[in-house]
Known about the structure:
The chain is an alpha/beta fold. It folds into 2 domains: 2-111 and 236-304, FAD/NAD(P)-binding domain; 114-232, FAD/NAD(P)-binding domain (3-Layer(bba) Sandwich). The protein is 23% helix and 27% strand. The longest helix is centred in the C-terminal third of the chain and has 23 residues, at 282-304. It is elongated and about 65 Å long. Flavin-adenine dinucleotide is lined by residues 7-13, 30-33, 36-38, 40-41, 44, 46, 78-79, 107-110, 152, 155, 239, 242, 272-273, 280-283, 285.
Amino acid sequence: MYDLIIIGGGPAAITAGIYAARKKIKVLLLTKNWGGQMAWAPEIDNYTGISNVKGLDLVNRMVAHLKENDLEIKEGVEVKKVSLKKDSSLEVRTGEEVYQSRTLIMATGRTPKKINAAGEEKFLGKGISYCAVCDAPLYADRVVAVIGGGNTGINTALEAAKYAARVYILGYQPKSSADQYLQIKAESNPKITFYHNILTHEFKGDNFVSAVVYEDKNTGEKKELAATGVFIAIGSIPNSSLVKNMVELNEKKEIKIDCQNASSVKNIFAAGDVTDVSHKQIIVATGEGAKAALNAYNYLNQMKGE
Ligand SMILES: Cc1cc2nc3c(=O)[nH]c(=O)nc-3n(C[C@H](O)[C@H](O)[C@H](O)COP(=O)(O)OP(=O)(O)OC[C@H]3O[C@@H](n4cnc5c(N)ncnc54)[C@H](O)[C@@H]3O)c2cc1C
């Protein structure tokens, strides 16, 4: 029986792992991968004390720090099921293994949203991607379309523009919702063109994507943009389904937590982007991971009557 199981490998889970291990409790961390969304951040300029770092570099530094601590880690595994037992302990199942724990931290973050336009599934991996850091080099010297004009869209366009010949941002809103500094960066990049008030209808091509069919919402006119690379960057959804029938979620399907990071089930804690905490940022996720671990530790002590 573990004292604490942490699900996730992003900044929230990694920090929770460091804090929990330092309390000398029996901890298991289970993750599909390291870094989560942080691994996709081309440049991070807002993590206190580090003025500029690539997402993957910060991931490697955090993981190295985590591994200096005494906890059990299983990487490359997906948790498939979480159940609450009658004695209020938790059972966590991966494909083959079953683990028991007194407490749980859900730090499962978020997954990119699909746009659900025709051709999206067909061309996934054949010109369509959700991750510029992973795939932008594949589109060197090509014309690339980025669907989405918010923070994720502009970050994606800036990364794509390092390689592509031209990058078109197709934003749904009449103006960009991205942070001002990102808008300025994109506007001053000669390779990037911004189209606002756009509805994406379809991705066309033979074996690989070759064009985006969109509607100009100002005029209602349907147009085609020739592009051999497409990044869909319209935000994300919380990975809360493992506990959706156990704990309270808000209308966005985020896990509702109190200021102790406790969910509506007292021994299930949550941290980072999967929760209803405002501001989905690395520094927020790390702080929330620390709080969740310390509060899980306090809970364990209360159970022991200390
Ligand atoms: C392109 C991009 C750029 C960004 N740039 C910045 C930036 O410059 N500055 C900033 O502060 N923030 C930035 N962010 C936001 C930041 O990355 C997130 O706020 C942060 O990563 C959230 O951390 P998290 O640990 O809560 O979740 P995530 O990073 O989403 O990590 C979740 C982890 O849980 C794992 N997981 C999920 N489900 C399971 C399961 N069933 N079993 C096992 N493991 C599971 C995932 O594999 C992953 O490792 C950016 C995000 C994106 C997408």
